[in-house]
Amino acid sequence: MLVNDFKCFPIMAETGYPVCFDATHSIQLPTSMGNISGGQREYIPHLVRGAAAVGINALFMEVHNDPPNAKSDANTVLDIQYLERILSQAKYMHEQRLELLEKWGEDNVHRN
């Protein structure tokens, strides 16, 4: 199982480069099915919303109209029928984050 550590987003943002979250590879279970990777695509929406809320500049997702028959990453690609809904949720979370920052600013808790 891969682990998503969302504190990496603000750390990467400090470089000044755009931060992209790879939602579909994040739910991959490497070689869990022998010689191919499994996946838990049911968690894609949760991770996308979380990443958008923390702050990302771009979102990457592999999408297919027939995931079981995808030639690559069949266990992790997102069914295209869910794409618009997930992107709409990500956009909403992004907008809410911007409103929150406008109202309260960044929560810059200083490191020791």
Automatic annotation (TrEMBL):
<dbReference type="InterPro" id="IPR006269">
    <property type="entry name" value="KDO8P_synthase"/>
</dbReference>
<dbReference type="InterPro" id="IPR013785">
    <property type="entry name" value="Aldolase_TIM"/>
</dbReference>
<dbReference type="InterPro" id="IPR006218">
    <property type="entry name" value="DAHP1/KDSA"/>
</dbReference>
<keyword id="KW-0963">Cytoplasm</keyword>
<comment type="pathway">
    <text>Bacterial outer membrane biogenesis; lipopolysaccharide biosynthesis.</text>
</comment>
<comment type="pathway">
    <text>Carbohydrate biosynthesis; 3-deoxy-D-manno-octulosonate biosynthesis; 3-deoxy-D-manno-octulosonate from D-ribulose 5-phosphate: step 2/3.</text>
</comment>
<keyword id="KW-0808">Transferase</keyword>
<dbReference type="GO" id="GO:0008676">
    <property type="term" value="F:3-deoxy-8-phosphooctulonate synthase activity"/>
</dbReference>
<comment type="similarity">
    <text>Belongs to the KdsA family.</text>
</comment>
<dbReference type="GO" id="GO:0009103">
    <property type="term" value="P:lipopolysaccharide biosynthetic process"/>
</dbReference>
<protein>
    <recommendedName>
        <fullName>3-deoxy-8-phosphooctulonate synthase</fullName>
        <ecNumber>2.5.1.55</ecNumber>
    </recommendedName>
</protein>
<dbReference type="Pfam" id="PF00793">
    <property type="entry name" value="DAHP_synth_1"/>
</dbReference>
<dbReference type="GO" id="GO:0005737">
    <property type="term" value="C:cytoplasm"/>
</dbReference>
<feature type="domain" description="DAHP synthetase I/KDSA">
    <location>
        <begin position="3"/>
        <end position="96"/>
    </location>
</feature>
